From TrEMBL:
Keywords: Membrane, Transmembrane, Transmembrane helix. The chain crosses the membrane at residues 38-62, 74-98, 118-136. Coiled coil: none annotated. InterPro entries: Uncharacterised_HI1736/YgjV (IPR019629), YgjV (IPR026267). The keyword Membrane applies. This is Inner membrane protein. It comes from Ferrimonas sediminum. The keyword Nucleotidyltransferase does not apply. It comes from the Bacteria.
Length: 180
């Protein structure tokens, strides 16, 4: 099996984990799925020779593991600061800039205690990773990030839609007496 084909197979498994992640309500299940997904995606990028993406996804794996046990701002700063030398060490122009920006946004998200803030921040970060994957030309990684955004939006809607909104029943308007 070629490195390219293996990389696409690994990212396919990562897609399944990403889709599962944001359909979980509990933050710890979201982060566990993301930890495994980012590990597979790091290997995917390494097999393709895209080292900034590989290093930042490996860092993301560790970041998600740490954010499972703590949301202390100290750790958020540690991971934000580690993003810079890893990006500079593996600099490859626009793909490096896009992946570093996505990684920084997802780092800020991972250390949010509230799952809604986690989801919203991840959407922002995913957008930069999607652009990265378009630039490097990885079809399965493009599909992964597209599905990841979709799954995240569905989870956000499922768990955080306004209480007054329901697809299955319509509330009739209530008439209030005129005020004088």
């Amino acid at each position: 099996m070629s490195s390219y084909l293996l990389s696409q197979c690994l990212v396919t498994v990562a897609i399944v984990l990403d889709l599962c992640s944001f359909q979980c309500r509990q933050r710890h299940w979201v982060l566990r799925c993301l930890c495994l997904s980012t590990l597979l995606t790091a290997i995917h990028f390494a097999l393709l020779g895209h080292w900034t993406g590989a290093l930042l996804m490996a860092l993301a794996c560790v970041r998600f593991a740490v954010s499972l046990v703590t949301t202390r701002p100290f750790w958020c700063w540690v991971f934000l600061l580690l993003t810079l030398p890893l990006t500079l060490l593996s600099w490859a122009g626009l793909p490096s800039l896009l992946s570093a920006t996505g990684s920084a946004l997802q780092t800020l998200s991972a250390f949010q205690r509230d799952d809604k803030r986690l989801r919203l921040g991840m959407i922002a970060g995913i957008s930069f990773w999607l652009a990265h994957n378009i630039v490097i030309g990885s079809p399965m990684a493009i599909a992964m990030e597209s599905l990841f955004i979709t799954s995240n939006l569905i989870g956000l809607w499922r768990f955080h839609r306004p209480a007054s909104f329901s697809v299955f029943r319509r509330k009739s308007p209530t008439l209030a007496p005129p005020s004088e």
